Amino acid sequence: MAHTQRQLHLGAFVYGVGHHIAAWRYPETNTQGLFTFDFYKRFAQTAERGKFDMIFIEDIPALPEHLETSVQYTVPVRAEPLTLLSGLASVTSRIGLAGTVSTTYSEPYHVARKFASLDHLSRGRAAWNAVTTSMEITSQNFGQDHHLDHSVRYERAEEFVEVVTSLWDSWEEDALHIDKASGLFADADKVHAIDHRGRFFNVKGPLSVPRTPQGRPVLVQAGSSDTGQNFAAKTAEVVFTAWQTLEEAQAFYDSLKGRMERYGRSRDQLKILPGVLPVIGSREREAKEKEAQLQELVLPEVGLSMVSRTLRIDLSAYPLDGPVPDLPDAAEINGGKSRYQLLVDMARREQLTIRQLVARVTGARGHKTISGTPEQIAGHLESWFVNGGCDGFNIMPPYLPGGLDEFVEQVIPILQARGLYRTEYSGTTLREHLGLSVPDNKFLLKARHQHA
Ligand SMILES: Cc1cc2nc3c(=O)[nH]c(=O)nc-3n(C[C@H](O)[C@H](O)[C@H](O)COP(=O)(O)O)c2cc1C
């Protein structure tokens, strides 16, 4: 019998050798695995064993500004996501493959072509996380002195996505004939130039890759500012986000889904997945000790510089045990706005000192940390899910490979037993796992409109 209860969607978020900022120093972490294929293969296969909807690989095409802390004491180096995902497509069969590519520092034709290729090679499992990139120094790797303004980044992102989706639609589904007998490879009437001329891009098309198994790869978005939400409401099918409390998550959920109607979309065409960093122990005390052990591995200068970067202020100039200084309104910030606001709200709400704020956010970078038994973690996920806080989660293992193994072996079975999570994949594509329909082909819609 088909399952009718609403179920969680889960992403397994890859972040270096683990999400905790000190993961690489943790005794159980395979830090040497960072640039080996087997490390990621094990991750993807474990997530697939846990029936995750997808794995997700983040990306920023730059190193943070302060090399003294970032390179000396953290692990800011990464393999490029699409290269990695292409390899992983060949050692997995069902799990979705999501990766970040920046709309500020790439070209839409490249992006459309790469994700369409990945969708074909993985038989319908590709997803693109379209981010505007918050790290300002990135501009200097791409021949630009200044990072575009926040609002202009989103204007560019909107046009970027418009071009990419048009390119994905430029081949109609039945354009390919591959008829050896007649010699007809494809029907030219079903392959369309897109002739896009806009403020940021001029792209003729069509794409050099035919329509993909998912129709279009799944579109993900990860900015939560007001502008980011409008962008997501218009185009995104999955949204990654970060919240500390259920109330914040609910407010965001309602705010974002409430905007979709404006764009003629229904609420179920978008899945919202906040991040959660689970620290698992067989008893609560053991989990708390594990979390404390990870925290002890964070050198003081690392945490302070990370929070200083997000808040765009040098906190080392202030007393560690004093209050977080007055900070400008998010409107004046040109990096990522929503994470900035999250930290400011947290500091104010709980009246944290600088030391306390640093201790609270360095581990998970502003995402929610839950340390407890598998039952407690499952209970937390269930509570956010059934109370309108989300459609699922991005699971962020604190260290690898053990952090994901434990989640799959200990938490997933509880979610399954409660009927909150699949025990088998029912489809083969990522769209099917997420319960997302294929968006209508723009060229067919246009033709229908002209004939009506
Ligand atoms: C789960 C998650 C994943 C993210 N992944 C990336 C990423 O891979 N690359 C990136 O530059 N930003 C990433 N971001 C951050 C934002 O999408 C992005 O930097 C954006 O500029 C922030 O936009 P905002 O001002 O609308 O919040 C991620 C955010 C979340 C919550």
Automatic annotation (TrEMBL):
Report the sequence similarity comment from the record. Belongs to the NtaA/SnaA/DszA monooxygenase family.
Q: What residue stretches are annotated with the Luciferase-like domain? A: 27-389
**Is Cell membrane one of the keywords UniProt gives this record?**
no
Q: Which GO-annotated molecular functions does the record name?
A: monooxygenase activity; oxidoreductase activity, acting on paired donors, with incorporation or reduction of molecular oxygen
Which sites bind FMN? 59, 100, 150, 154, 224-225
What protein name applies here?
Answer: LLM class flavin-dependent oxidoreductase
Keyword Repressor belongs to the record: no
Species of origin reads Paenibacillus piri
Q: Which UniProt keywords apply?
A: Flavoprotein, FMN, Monooxygenase, Oxidoreductase
